[in-house]
Amino acid sequence: MIKIQRQVILAPYTTLKIGGPARYFTVVKNLRELKESISWAKENKKEIFILGGGSNILLAKPWPGLVIKNEITGSEIIKETKKSVWYQAYSGENWQKFVEDSVRRHLYGLENLASIYGSVGAAPVQNIGAYGAELKDVFVSLEALNLKTGRSKIFKASDCHFAYRDSVFKKSLRGKYFIYRVTVKLSKEPRLNLSYGGIKEILLAKKIKTPTPKQIALAVTELRASKLPIPAILPNAGSFFKNPEVSEKEFKKLQKRWPEIKFFSGSKPNLIKIPAAWLIEQAGFKGRRYGAVGMYEKQALILVNYGGASAAQVLAQIKRVIKGVKTRFGLTLEPEVNIIPPLK
Ligand SMILES: Cc1cc2nc3c(=O)[nH]c(=O)nc-3n(C[C@H](O)[C@H](O)[C@H](O)COP(=O)(O)OP(=O)(O)OC[C@H]3O[C@@H](n4cnc5c(N)ncnc54)[C@H](O)[C@@H]3O)c2cc1C
What we know:
Elements: E1 5-9, E2 21-28, H1 31-43, E3 48-51, E4 57-59, E5 63-70, E6 75-80, E7 84-90, H2 95-104, E8 129-130, E9 133-134, E10 139-146, E11 152-156, H3 157-160, E12 177-187, H4 199-205, H5 213-227, E13 236-239, E14 245-247, H6 248-257, E15 264-265, E16 271-273, H7 276-282, E17 289-290, E18 293-295, E19 302-305, H8 311-329, E20 338-340
Parallel strand pairs: 2-5, 3-5, 4-20
Antiparallel strand pairs: 1-2, 6-7, 7-12, 8-9, 10-11, 10-12, 13-19, 14-16, 15-16, 17-18, 18-19
The structure holds flavin-adenine dinucleotide.
C-alpha cells in the first residue's frame, strides 16, 4: 500500500531550496507503487507532478495535486556485443551514480556528462548536455507510463524529438508521462570528445595521453567544481537560461555592434549560439545581488539563492534579467529551468 502524505513542503527536495507545499505527496520505490500512485491520482482526480532530484525546477506555487517523488533505482546491462553495451537504468537512479558505474566498467559515452545533478529519468526531459555531449548521443529508448491511463509505452530516440536542452517531454507531452527506465548504448572502444571546455588541457597537464572514461569523468568533475556553485552550500538550479540561437544574418548585425561578442556553432548548421552568460554579464547582472537572489559572481548564467529567497524574488529576478538582456541586445532569453507553473 502506498503512503500518501499531506501538505508536504517541497523546498528541501529542490536544489534551489524553494517550493511551498504539495497537497498530496508520495514516494515510489518500485513499479507497483508507481502504478498504485497513478491509480490513486486518477480516482481522486488529482494532477500529478513528478519529482526527481529537484535540480531543474522552480516551484513557484503550491502543488494542488499529487507529487510523486521518484526513488525507483537500479541499473543493469541488458545486452552486450563485442564493441557495445546496452545499459539500462531505472529513472530514480542518481545520474552521477549511473555515470560512475559506467566509467568503472570502462565504458565510453557518459564520461562528459559526469557530475550533472538529478535523476536518470529527468535526463531525457531536457536532453541533458555538457562538454560537447548530450544524452541523445547515446540514447536508445525509454519506457514511460501514461499518467492518465497507467499504460506503458516505449519511446525510441526519434519519438523523443531531442533538441538543445529540449524534448517532447518539455513540449507536447509535458506532464503526461512518467519516464520509468532509460536505455543507453555505450562503447567498449574509445570514442573521445575532448575538445570542449578545457578537458584536453587538464589531461595533458596530468600527462594522460590515452585517457580512460574514468579519467575523463574526473577531469570534467574537476572543471565543473572550479566553476559551479555546490547547491548544498549555495542553492541553485544550474544554468538558468538557454543560450539563444540566432540566424547568421542576425548574428552579423549583433557582431557589427558588439565586435567582442562571444559565439559558437548552433544546434543546426545555419544557427549561431550566443552564450547567455556573456549576455547576462554585459547587461550588468553578473555578481549583482537583489536581496536574497542574484546571478553567481563566477558564472553569470547561474541564479543563486543566497539564503531564504522566495519564489516571488526568483521570478522577479528572472524577469529582470530577461528584460535587461532584451533591452541591450534585442534577444529574448528562455529559461532552461522548469518553472511551475510556467512563466506567462
Ligand atoms: C549545479 C548544477 C549544474 C547543472 N548542470 C547541468 C548541465 O551541465 N547540463 C544539464 O543539462 N543540466 C544541468 N543541470 C540541471 C539538472 O541537473 C538536469 O536537468 C537534471 O536532469 C534534472 O534532474 P532532476 O532529477 O533533478 O529533475 P527535476 O528537477 O526533479 O525535474 C525536472 C523536470 O523533469 C520532470 N521529471 C523528472 N523526473 C521525471 C520522470 N521520471 N518522468 C517524467 N518527467 C520527469 C519534472 O517533472 C520536471 O518537470 C544542473 C543543475 C545544477 C543544480
